Request: fold
Amino acid sequence: MERVYAWDVKRECVVYRIPGHTFDDGREDSDFNPVWLPAKADELPEGVSVDDLREVES
Reply:
């Protein structure tokens, strides 16, 4: 599944989500209810930097 990365302005870190994924605890990621998970900047795809990411609040 493809990850979507963003910058969390509250936590001041890189986060990601997996659109459409249902987690073991029953949470389902959707555009209306995204599930943002912590990530590291070195996990970003090649050619993408932190400055390229959109800002979100999780």
User: Anything to note?
Assistant: The chain is about 0% helix and 25% strand. The radius of gyration is 11 Å. The chain has one domain: 4-56.
